[in-house]
User: Fold alpha-1,2-Mannosidase from Tetrapyrgos nigripes.
Amino acid sequence: MVRLYVATALRCFGVLSILYPLVLAGPVQKAGLRVPDSAFQHRDDVKNIFIESYQAYRKFAFGHDDLEPVSKSFSDGRNGWGASIVDGMPTMQIMGLDDFFNEAVQFVGKIDFSESQTPDTVSLFETTIRYLGGLVSSYELSGKQHQILIDKAKQLTDKMAFAWETPNQTIPWRFVDFDTNSPNLGTSNIAEAGTLDLEWNRLSLHTGNDTYRRLAEGSVRTIAGLTDPLPGLAAQGIDPATNAFVGNYITWGGGSDSYFEYLIKYARLTNTDDNLFADEWHTAVDSSIKHLQSRSTVQNHLYLADRDDNGDIVHVSSHLACFHGGNWIFGGKLLNNDTIVNIGLELVEACWNTYASTATGIGPEAFEWLAQDSFQPGDTRPNRQQTAFYLQHGFFITASDYILRPEVLESNFYAWRATGDTKYLDRAASAVESFKKFLQVQSSGGYSGINDVNNVTVSRIDDTESFWFAEVLKYLYLTFDDPDHISLDKYVFNTEAQPFEAPPAKPVYGSGHPYPAQGSYVMKPSGAPLPKISPIPGVSISFGTNDNSNSN
Ligand SMILES: *[C@@H]1O[C@H](CO)[C@@H](O)[C@H](O)[C@H]1NC(C)=O
Ligand SMILES: *[C@@H]1O[C@H](CO)[C@@H](O)[C@H](O)[C@H]1NC(C)=O
Ligand SMILES: *[C@@H]1O[C@H](CO)[C@@H](O)[C@H](O)[C@H]1NC(C)=O
Ligand SMILES: *[C@@H]1O[C@H](CO)[C@@H](O)[C@H](O)[C@H]1NC(C)=O
Assistant:
């Protein structure tokens, strides 16, 4: 951490100089970090798992979205464009699997993103983070030589842009029917509306068309401009028709998670001089420290609780929410704030404990705890079995499945790169062993989810989501790799673990303090042009009524 005291040369009558503390952004990674030689064996293990499971995908499911490793078949839950290929491409590039990567580039050239290959409408969020994120990241990681990746990204995103139905709409609808270019109307949530701006901003950078950035960023600006139930902690539901929150539910888990995640990542990726993004994130973190922090009565683990529509705290958390430790470490470093980094590290501990405590060594989908700050109306009363488990481990399982999610190992990766404590390498190695033992399907070589992480005679979930290739194996691989490879000081990961090249960090992110009260950021009136911010080099930006090229 670098805290510089800048001597401002205020020399009054030649007598004194005053020292002002100036809080500078710290590097995210620990300086001089190296992995021990033993790590490379684990790295190769992870690479082999990728090869085995991707070969199984190629054999039984190539061109489809997911492998079904038990039935040796496939499913198409992401519009049938080959999600595992596109989402997996940056991992292939990072692991040096050039044959797979080149095959994937060929494949992408043949995808027709102008229509869904299934009867389904297209999810703006899922399609952005997996397909658009995968294409843009692959383009950057492979030295910007495959223009086809950007051409296809543009074809896809021009269709997704119909999620903004009217010129004055700032928050997009969740789904678009690619046959009719019309959105499905209905309530959205802040995760789906607020997890587009990294990807759409990069597409603007690589195409010179600023409309993508303007649309995606406008959605985040609108959400950040609303009056929150707690300062910085936006409610989960949002109505694109009215720009109003739906309910008051607050969580760092699904439906809200990556809205918070992207606030600080957008500040870092764009280096915008507009403090909105970093300050809004800091405000959310500050409120979480004040209102959502909760410790278990057993083992004193630190968790972040939810807050329900009535304003009651609910002591629930999830695998999805466990990205928060890594995100607080990352943002805390950028804000040069040890308090935030250290809470992030404690959250990493509690999330890892959900792995360390089960029979398989893998963590569950959802869990709860009994809080030192008292039992609340929304809390689950644990049954006998859950109580026994709780007394041993400081949490109890409320949804026991594991569907190949990354978040616990993602935060473990941030903790390793930020601290250099080798216990994080040991944890990643232990997860690899558990995966080999309990997830691999011998008959196909693929990897499946399981229904009960606390039962070693597990029953399988016959699916390999694309985030197995995109996230789990990439975070594990990079944990064991040379820390200079995809350094957290040079790349910003999207919520699907797709790294985007970041410029050198700014000296300072945000104003240095959370907003004093809610509503201090005034929302732009509907229809008003957005302020000219974070200009992208080489992009001429024009604002005005005729720039609403998304409406037909
Ligand atoms: C820029 O992107 C928008 C949104 O997809 C699209 O409607 C417009 O045609 C694009 N402009 C150019 C010049 O390609
Ligand atoms: C937005 O535009 C639509 C039609 O283009 C119009 O019906 C609606 O009233 C406008 N909403 C606002 C808030 O201006
Ligand atoms: C770090 O952030 C926390 C949470 O907002 C705040 O309470 C604390 O004062 C900050 N520390 C510094 C040194 O700015
Ligand atoms: C573990 O799962 C198997 C098969 O699903 C089941 O028969 C068994 O009762 C479970 N064991 C425990 C301890 O829950």
Residues 1-20, 518-552 have pLDDT under 50 and may be disordered.
